[in-house]
Design goal:
CATH superfamily of the largest domain: YopX-like domains
Structural class: mainly beta
Number of strands: 11
Number of helices: 1
CATH topology of the largest domain: SH3 type barrels
Distance between the termini: 36 Å
Order of helices and strands: EEEEEEEEEEHE
Largest sheet: 6 strands, antiparallel
Shape: elongated
Number of domains: 2
CATH class of the largest domain: Mainly Beta
Radius of gyration: 16 Å
Length: 128
């Protein structure tokens, strides 16, 4: 099963007044970016480019690399984490070590948590 490749990035120094606008990129050409909301001209902040994980959070929101999430554990506690791409997969990096099974850990596979509807996107690392 395959998924659509999709990216998200923040506009920077646009030609038409869209600075700070998030665009969801589905096509690229010279200085234009296509999104589901239209075509934009201008630069994007390269450091804000994040790939869609192909997964949805508990509310049906798409999860992107760089998102900050609340993760609910089986005991009801909620821990904060950031979505990162490393070692060929998307992981959750917890902001403080957590117990996963019998091991203390600072990361775990994102997909394991989305299957249980335990992940909720609350923002991203570029929001101020």
């Amino acid at each position: 099963m395959s998924r659509a490749l999709k990216f998200r990035a923040m506009m920077n120094r646009p030609h038409d007044g869209h600075e700070g606008l998030w665009v969801y990129i589905t096509g690229i050409g010279h200085d234009q970016w296509w999104s589901k909301n239209g075509r934009y001209r201008g630069d994007i902040r390269q450091e804000t480019i994040g790939e869609w994980t192909g997964l949805l959070d508990r509310n049906g929101k798409e999860i992107f690399e760089g998102d900050r999430c609340n993760v609910q554990f089986a005991d009801g506690t909620i821990n904060r984490a950031e979505v990162v791409f490393e070692d060929g997969c998307f992981n959750l990096h917890f902001y403080r070590p957590v117990m996963i099974g019998q091991y203390q850990n600072v990361r775990d596979y994102l997909k394991c948590w989305t299957v249980n509807h335990a992940v909720e996107v609350i923002g991203n690392i570029y929001a101020t």
